[in-house]
Amino acid sequence: MNIKEIESLIQFVQKSGVSEVSLEQKDFRIIIKTSHGQQLVAAPVVHAAPQVIQAAAPAPAPAAPKAEAPKAADDSKLVTIKSPMIGTFYRSSSPDKPSFVNVGDEIKAGKVLCIIEAMKLFNEIESEVSGRIVKVLVDNSTPVEYDQPLFLVDPS
Q: What are the structural domains, with CATH classification, of the chain?
C-alpha cells in the first residue's frame, strides 16, 4: 500500500464518521483510530518489524461559525472542484493569455479549468462536472494543497 492509498483511507475514515478502521494485507496491517474532536492517527504495523510507525493526519475542520450557517444552506447544491495534487495554481497557460475560466462561465465535463505546476510539470486540471463557475477560491500563482477546494460550480 502506498502513501496515496493511505491518505485516501484516512480521508474516507474522516468523512464516514467511524471511530476505527483496520486493514490487513499479506505483509502489513494498518489501523486508523479517531474519536470526535481528536486527530486521526494511522499506525501501520509491519509484521517483519516489531515497531509501530505512526503518522498523524490533519485534525477534522472546526465547526463553522454560526454567522455562516445561512450561507451553508445556499452552497449545498454547489459542487466543489478540489486540487488533485500539491503544486502552484495557475488560471491561464501563460501570463499574457486569458484565464481558462471565469466566474459565470458555463463549463462542460472535460474542460480545462486551470493548471497546477508540480516539480516543473504543468498538469491541466479538467472539470468532472458540467455547470456554471460560481466562485474561484484560489488566487493565481499561489501554492495549493492536495484536496484543497479550487472552484465552486453550480451544476444546475
A: 3-56 (no CATH), 73-154 (2.40.50.100)
